[in-house]
Amino acid sequence: MGADTHGRGPKRANGAREAEILDLLQLAEAALTPGEVAERLGGELTYSSVVTILTRMHTKGLLTRTPRGRAYAYAPVTDDAGFAARRMRTVLEERPDREAVLARFADGLSDTDADLLRQLLGPDQHPGQY
After folding, report:
1. At 32, is the secondary structure helix, strand, or coil?
2. How far is residue 120 CA from its own chain's centroid?
3. What CATH number has the domain spanning 14-76?
4. Domains of the chain by residue range
5. DSSP structure class, residue 123
6. Is residue 42 classed exposed, middle or buried when 0-12, 13-18 and 19+ CB atoms within 10 A define those classes?
């Protein structure tokens, strides 16, 4: 590790750490163990902190994990577009008036995005299936 004997970097919000680790895992060519994640973070976090964050992300359904030796190796469940779509669905599901939310969303789309959405929701598509 570096000169920091505690292996900790600047204090950051959990969401920022999760996003940083998710980005790291998305760029990796294969699933990574907590030790590999800690190493790629340059010693900013202790091994146990990395395990805690990865476990929390796995519990949230953001990561898959497979046994590798005495540890698990973690990988994202989807790509960046998939995560964005999941966030959009979550926001929609949290609102009582889905129609109003969708109408406002559609009103704010550019002509190009509206055309693309129409194309994606064409007659061959079945709303509600992902």
Report:
1. strand
2. 24
3. 1.10.10.10
4. 14-76, 80-120
5. T
6. exposed
